[in-house]
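Cross-check.
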Amino acid sequence: MKHSIRPVARIIQSHRQREGGGFIVRRPFPSAGLSHIDPFLLIDEMGPADYGPGEAIGAPDHPHRGFETVTYMLEGEFEHEDSAGHRGTIRPGDVQWMTAGAGIIHSEMPSRRIREDGGRIHGFQIWVNLPAKLKLTRPRYQEVSSSKIPRAKSEDGLVDVRVIAGSAFGASAVIDTHTPIIYQDFRVKPGGEFTESYPADHRLLVYVFGGSLELGGEGQRVNDGQLALLGDGDSIRVRVPQNEESEARFLLLGGVPLNEPVARYGPFVMNTKDELIQAFRDFESGKMGEITRSAAHR
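Predicted model, tokenized:
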């Protein structure tokens, strides 16, 4: 079977900025010239950053409505809690897929250990839009520990993938998504290459966060900190030349475009300005609840 290899349609350079209470992120979008890439609203690479004692800051209590937040840790720990009574710690390799839906108050902070003693933080938070019919769905959490994330390797062992959403190399994700989503963490060693099929109706993105690689039939080079938006086709081709000094690390993200209007402001993403106004009213009136804390969790 002949593959139709997706070309690189555009390369976007990420930029560093402070987010939330002050943690450093590397962000390809949103930016001044690019609000979103349907169905994705935001990609933040948190760190990598080394914090001294008392330096680590997160995102204290804040609301969300109308979309999903996906947190994936590579190094360090984040503690989370919300107005629905969920509470836990996300450790290296763990994934938290939160559907904010109709609304939730959420807190994400480096663990107490890292806040007090310092440590290294590296991970991702990605925002996935919800279609209009699911904007006010009931909030839900899916938390998957590192050991339960499916993994697969190429026959030569040079390509390794953790399948958070979708399928690759015969492995399928354990996470359920409201809309068709691909979220995969690849490592490709020097000399490694592969061609893999993905649904033609998905928009695909490749975000490189370590090393460099070559993409598509033309071998377009994509470097650390760059996001490649792929064009039409039914397969992707990735190659890391033998002479590269280090392996390539990248996220492969994909989804079916919703093709709906996007009205966003801060933590709310709806379809119209009136829906945004209602979201603020519901938040201010307490309809999204609040995080209740016992003395042990303060």
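DSSP finds two helices and 26 strands in the chain. Residues 8-255 form a domain with the Jelly Rolls fold (CATH 2.60.120.10). Passed to J.P. for a second look.
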